[in-house]
Amino acid sequence: MVEIVDKLNHDDQLNNIQNPLNVQVFLNDLVGNDFNNVFKLLPSFYQQLEKRKGQISCFVAAMPGSFHGRLFPNHCVHLVHSSYSLHWLSQVPKGLVTDSGLPLNKGNIYIAKTSPPSVHEAYLAQFQKDFTNFLSLRSEEIADCGSLVLTFICKNDEGDGCDFWEMLGITMNEMVIEGLIEEAKLDKFNLPLYAPSIREIKQIIEKEGSFKILQLETFKLKWDSNMANHGEKEEKSRATYVAGNMRAVQEPILVDHFGEQIMDDLFERFGKNAIEYMNNYGKGIINNIVFSLSKTK
């Protein structure tokens, strides 16, 4: 992002616009994130900027906290970039159990083909609440004419195929059958995330009213796409790679509910199941959306 700003500033200078820039970058993550490890990389980053001999100075700081709450003072930020975060909900949706406590999403850890309509409605309602809140909070923090650039996972509008989390749920059900996971524990577990459709996103943005959409694009990535780019095709390597991607994101929340003892077995099985599914059905796609918004009020 800084390099893009530097290039645009350099192009202005070629057009006789002398405008050296000072850019302040705030990194945001939850308070438990180890920002010290990130900061250790900054000296090499600053050296790279100096080698480019651009007319830009960059100053990096951190702003710990949840993006579901306020992060900055009023009207002080010009650009907010959120990368693969906004599909995470502030909490597991309410309404996933009956009044008597019976699970409505039994056997699933997310919205699946066997989930009743009420489960989807509960997830959508929570996403609508959280995304509306995110837009409202950022509109207070962003300066006039400021921008948002948002990237997150979206729904498979074709309605076919198995998504990443459904495959994880299938794998966990296999372990229930073998007695490795308690069925009651699985029935009580639901992931706090939601992959919205493009229509749902647009409706929320229009209803909240603080931003207008400037540009919107979608793209697809295979579950092993980055690995494929490096020419590694071996089944075991692909399974390890796909499982590692899932584990890096989901393990903490799974450990909190199921304990650490099943994690190695779970993700080894998940990797094998994922690659088998991709090979047999030619599927295994993550749908993504990226769009830019401009503040309107």
Automatic annotation (TrEMBL):
A Pfam match: Methyltransf_7
Superkingdom in the source lineage: Eukaryota
InterPro entries: MeTrfase_7, MeTrfase_capping, SAM-dependent_MTases_sf
Record keyword Protein biosynthesis present: no
Keyword Magnesium included in the entry's annotation: yes
Keyword entries, A-Z: Magnesium, Metal-binding, Methyltransferase, Transferase
Family: Belongs to the methyltransferase superfamily. Type-7 methyltransferase family.
Protein name, per record: Uncharacterized protein
Originating species: Datura stramonium (Jimsonweed)
